[in-house]
Amino acid sequence: MIYAISVDDHQMISLGLEKVFSETNDITLAGFCKSKAELEHFIDSKAYEKTAGGAVPMQNLVALVDIKLEEGSGFDCADFLVSRGVKCLMYSSFSNAGFIVKTMEHRIKGFLSKNADKTEILEAVRAVSRGETYIQKDLIPEMMYVSGIMVTLTKKEREFLDLISEHLPNEEIAKRLNLSKRTVENYVSRIFDKFNVKNRYELEKLL
To answer: If DSSP codes are grouped into helix, strand and coil, which group holds residue 32?
Structure first.
């Protein structure tokens, strides 16, 4: 039996997953958490075993984690789960390729957008439970395109890209990195060229 954990600050999402899993014979929702604090308590107290009615090996757990939570980052939750030996699948309304690349960098086993249908949700949970990597099929081409660009970025360009992803203006980036505004503009222009975009709006659609 696969015991799923939903980490999402919208309870309706967790209830929807519970209904999907209830229609199977091999997956059940063991619980849901809205924040990292709740998740840490849930895992460390082994609260999931109440649903199972007995001991549950960590390898039988699969967590579906939203990227953005009201309290903290889903990636922080995923890092905690991975450190405890729990397999993770990012499940988010944000399907930008950059998030998928970041998912792989965090040793998370899979990525689904919340527009995935029931069949693909079940396929993803079962694949991740087996230790396989699963990316939603229609998101793979764009992920491969962005991933191919990412590997060409220098360490400094990647640093700039992360700051751009935080929606920081050039002036703020200059202050944070103790650089001139002109130097920042040159780096940002170089990143635009590599991603073949004209402005931040086009870049953020990819990231």
So the answer is: strand
The residue with tokens 């402005």 is 199
The first and second tokens of residue 65, run together, are 């984690």
For residue 21, list its beta bridge partners.
none
Side-chain half-sphere of 48: how many Cα atoms within 13 Å?
30
Look-up of token digits 């030996």: 85
Residue-level pLDDT, tens digit, the chain, 207 residues: 999 999 999 999 999 999 999 999 999 999 999 999 999 999 999 988 888 888 888 889 999 999 989 888 899 999 999 999 999 999 999 888 888 988 988 889 999 999 999 999 999 999 999 999 999 999 999 899 998 999 999 999 999 998 998 889 999 999 999 999 999 999 999 999 999 999 999 998 888
What's the Cα-to-Cα distance from 187 to each of 24, 29, 82, 180, 200, rounded to whole Å? 51, 46, 34, 11, 13
Structure tokens at 154: 């220098």
Helix (H, G, I), strand (E, B) or coil at 195: helix
Taking the alpha carbons at both ends of the chain, their separation in whole angstroms is 36
Backbone angles phi, psi at 23, to 5 degrees: -90, 5
Q: 3-state class of 179 per DSSP?
A: coil
Whole-model pTM? 0.82
The DSSP result for 65-117, as a single string, is E-SB-SSSBHHHHHHHHHHTT-EEEEEES---HHHHHHHHHTT--EEEETT--
Residues 190, 196: Cα–Cα separation, whole Å = 10
